[in-house]
Amino acid sequence: MEYADLTRLCFRCGYCKFSADYGEINCPSYLKFGFDTYAPGGRMWLIKAWLTHQIDISANYMKILYTCATCGNCKEQCVMDLKTNLLDVFEAAKSELVEEGAVPPAVRDYFKAISINGNPYKEPQSERGKWAEGIGIEVFDGHEYLFYVGDVGSYDERGKKMARSVASVFVDAGLSVGMLGEEELSDGNDVKALGEKWLFQYLAEENIKLFNARGVKKIITLDPHAYNAFRVEYPKFGGNFEVQHYAQLFLTLIRNKTIHPETSDLKVTYHDPCYLGRHGGVYDAPREVLKYVPGLHFSEMRRNGKNALCCGGGGGNFFTDMMGGGEESPARIRVREALETGCQGLVVACPLCAKMLDDAVKAEGVETRIRIQDLAETLKGACREMTNSRTAGDDVLDMRSLTGYCCDLWKIPSILRDRIIGPDDIREDAEKRPTRRSAL
Amino acid sequence: MEIVVLVKQVPDTEAMIQIAEDGVSLKTEKITWIMNPYDEFAVEEAVRIRASLGGRVTVLALGPESTVTAIRTALAMGADKGIHIHDPAAEGSDSLSTGKILAAALKDMPYDLIIAGQRAMDDDGYQVGAAVAEYLDIPQISMVIKQEIVGGKIICHRTEDGALVTVESELPVLFTTQRGLNEPRYVTFPGIIKAKKKPVEVKTLEDLGIDPQTVGPAGQKVTIVALHSPPKRIGVRMIVRETEQENAAELVRILSEEVKVLLA
Description:
The structure holds two protein chains of two kinds. Chain A is α/β, with parallel strands linked by helices.
């Protein structure tokens, strides 16, 4: 196995699973499962045990390897030189499982869907460009930028919404930008993270061929995972493109006064996507963008930047759900952490984070207190309905000013949207729904 | 233990199925072809049995040129050799003819155990496994979720109307697979390429001693008269009246008058 020698260097000091101040656990899978085998050090020892024939491949061994969200917190906290290749060790171990054919069914089905259908949703390629209907973005044909949306932006409802808001910012700004639509193919970042390096190579080569054939030079990605694949991995296969995440381009466009953020008096915080932050080193651009929104109140979460807690969707977990839900799932912990800041909006810059945290908000039953919004939605003042002054501690809201917004959240049919919901009804409803405390 | 697995290549289960111009066949241009998912359980089980009892796993498939991809996938999963019955005269065979052709190939082969998918995911016929067993005059156990071979006997578990049925038989036997039997292994690209070194024997109807007039379109006992797409799902219809009583009354009216599921 590649990097096998590194497993001997880890003496399981355990720092890898902590936050920068060692004050709390920052490894998503260790947070969820609480056993040392689910921490990076534990995985290192387990892989070593497998390499030295002390243990065999089992369902549990597979689960432990595949619940790693590849968030990279361990690389920040590890005190040994091996930290540079820490995630490479896990990836190599997963590759060994792939080669043996011994991967969890959810991982197998993810690979098969991408091999057969070109995307994990098993949807026809002809549906790929549907997110863009009515936005006015053209199919790429010699444009300055290619807007690559990826699987989640193309097929997931939350992802599509995000792709639409980002694309409309570009279109409104008159940027020369095109999309690939039904020709777009999975970027393969998570395929690689799950250890299927052969399928990843195929996807990378196909994408590079396609980008070159279409004359693509500059790529803007919706998804930080694609940003990582194009920027770090594709050059290894001869694909050299100028790659930016949309947050970076937003900043440029704001600075040169091409786009003008709308005023907002929301209180927001920002969640760093692992593949933009720790993997991509882009911490400032999204924060700078938020600074340009007039009136916006920004505050940081306890864990931010290099020290941010992952939503749990990285490393393919978004698709395979090996991590699973529950109260101690990283996404729900993250939502509770965001609520501590007193924010009304949790700003994200990744479609996977958006969906993971959206679901977590619902699971926590805090839809009326916090909303997951991406950077583009924040610029366009999508949360204007929520601008009444509230703090996170408020249990009862004045719903009359929020009717439109709440209808969306509580899935009240739009036909009832005009009906005014009284505060008493809402309070009663909120009490009925299980909260974290009442569940305990 | 000589194990033979029957494999069919079918359209990807998520493929957009469209009826061809002739009205009795399907458009195949944009379809991705895969190994029938129930056959994957069969290959996986065969490979696992070989791992514990030793022996050889042979994959037997009938179909056009492209079928070899399904055979290669089975070989990459661990099967030892493949037999591809490829003859234009056999195309368009119904389930019974398919059973007859496969059985003819099996007559010349050693086998202790034959494993087949319970049905192919394309036409959902459920016939071929049973037909092969009948032609070979051996017992068949269908929709197996667990099996155990002890001393020349096989014990199979199958579910039936919420009950678990245990069936025992002497070998040789044919059994068909049900979901839950196992989790088929994942096969990588290099795995499939490596499997190219394994032998795939191609046979024609003549090799099997079958008169082309008795199979294919000429030998059809079942004829497809027409294909129809299922009716499109209609969207949700909201009933919005002033009061709950009016809502309920309208719902009852729709269910009895329009949908006709309630009788007055």
